[in-house]
């Protein structure tokens, strides 16, 4: 009874571990012992009656692992190598190992001595991966193998093995060691009693963690190899004696391979390589490869015994790949001409390098690039055309200073929500949209103020020390962005927010993250033009965004911009209603933040250029002289809704769709679900309630459904009308969140889900307007399904944390903002769990 309970606990632990494993994670392994009851060479399978499993019970013993009796179970699996069939038959006593499942594919099989022999639990033959074969070899032999990766042939955490180091021992004494390449075989015979052992290295894999460029902590499916081992001998015998063999042999492996081998100054080829005929004694070994420091050491060659050296070469130089849009820009690297883009600068010393790119008709751009030894870093720069306003920046700053302002420059960069959450900079991901990126202002603090805000990404971006993602701000200050709008996208917007608020009852601040009005989006933005540019819409056009709570400051900024040569056509106001929030520099003041949203570039290459370049410059403008403040009131809000609620005509069809989904997927499952409701409040509503608006946007309507624990065999199916297909909105997004961190991990859009309900509604002329989509831990190649990871910090949701589905609908064409809730047919979700 105790043994059965222990075995049950072992399998339960393995099962629970497997549930939380994403694709590519280490899989559970199993080792069984029993007898062969079936052999099929045509199917390449062996069936065993397993009577024992290998397990570990930590009860204070020195060696807690042993064979544990189990209920006899018949297990069938394919063999690791056909040679297995030459060494076993029905009735043979064997041990076998598998990974991921019990049986199905034996990655290793060992033939054991018969029960009536003098060594009842010793192995004579081993096939496949040796790590799961637990019984010792006959005659006191043991074998250690260590595969070496080909770092140029890797997939995830696993590489092809280019060689393996092998050590044969008997009764604890090493008797042979050497290096085998795939297909090589080695054998040892003890002259004292004629016993021996042979090992053939068929093929194998090795861990990518042995390669120098592998990111720290990479995990994945464990590597496996195929060996064929045969041991002979009737007993342990005496301790073997070696017969000296002269001369000696040296095997050399390097990571990476391809290094020149110099032995005592003589060229002996490249790694991996084996050198024979070496006189016993001390020799000088040097490995040389371009871009890597020489590897030097003395090696002692022993007569009759192979010597193995494995070396990891240390890179000494790095390279920098530089591209630009447009190409053909002249590149100066650390002040010296380096050529024109695109180019690769090689043999660079590790560290920071100054890069300058220039081209006729474009603004010169200066960057700092960090080179890492042994790596090729990538730098992409978009050169702004002269005429987009960038060449007027100097004149604009001078004009602002003449108007009595102090001008400080900040940065306009990616807002990496997940990275900041994983670094514990922010306590939540605030319902981030996993489909779309965010850019934000990172600004210096008020002049002379040490604590300029409450949130900075400097812990993960040291170059941003002193810059804040939210900032204390006086009512008469301004923030001015001068740059270009993105290349064509389905949607973009700019908007300021209240970031955090101090609560006396808490003695601390908390996030509000509420919008302060309508956005400046691609439906209503004012842009300038670039001479000679031909492009439709408000894309890749000069733009200025003025964020302030003071009408007088706005007028002075506009006056300075006009004096510098900017057109009023490109100026946009992002008003802060200072009466609604607590502006100021005290620790109890509210902070301000700014978000630039983008969704779905028409040209992904141009989109990446925009994201990786500097699409504009941002300045904090602080009055240096006192003037009468003219605070803005609360801005007029655009009205949601058109009165068109035709989606609700599909309510009966949506219920029919629900029944069809349950009929197809509900067999053997418990079916349940919650009703969808509104998730995120509008900014002004949240401000009055003093609750977190999660960075709301009036250009969208946010719905939610949940919360559900998503185990290994559970799944969720979301369904409803595709609001983009009905013509109601510009685009739809469906995302999965963890309820603890509100981290969006996966999402699908209207383009992904289009037509996915057709098979559920045969004969329905409106089937194309509906969708069905599945979210599960494992999709196993199923179409219309997205896997929800359970690892990796903010990138996953553990099985112990409930998941939530969020539905976003963006922009109604007639209004230019998000739809109103009572004109939308709510998306729904069904939760399936095993009965």
Features:
single chain; 835 residues; mainly beta; 10-stranded mixed sheet; 7-stranded antiparallel sheet; 8 helices; disordered N terminus
**Spatial ordering of strands, largest sheet:** 5-3-2-1-4-6-7-14-12-11
Number of helices: 8
- Structural class by SSE content: mainly beta
Mean pLDDT: 87
Helical fraction equals under 10%
Kindly provide the radius of gyration, computed on alpha-carbon positions and rounded to a whole number of angstroms: 34 Å
Beta-strand share of residues: 35-45%
Residue windows where pLDDT falls under 50 for at least 5 positions: 1-24, 235-245
Q: Could you walk me through the main structural features you see in this protein, from its secondary elements to its overall organization?
A:
- By secondary structure, this protein is mostly beta strands.
- 10% of the residues lie in helices and 42% in strands.
- It is built from eight helices and 50 strands.
- Helix 2 (393-402) crosses helix 4 (551-564).
- The relative contact order is 0.08.
